[in-house]
Amino acid sequence: MTTVLDVQRFKEEGRRFAVLTAYDYLSAKILDEAGIPILLVGDSLGMVMLGYPTTLPVTVDEMVHHAKAVARGARQALLVGDMPFMSYHTSVEQAITTAGRFMQEGGMHAVKLEGGGRVVEITRRLTDMGIPVMGHLGLTPQFVHQMGGFKVQGKSDKQATRILADAKELEQAGAFSIVLEGVPSEVATRVTKALRIPTIGIGAGAGTDGQVLVFHDMLGITTGKAPKFVKRYANLAAEITSAAQRYIEEVGDGTFPGPEHSYSAASGSVNGSAAPATQRDEVKYGAG
Question: What is the average pLDDT across 101-111?
Answer without folding.
Answer: 99
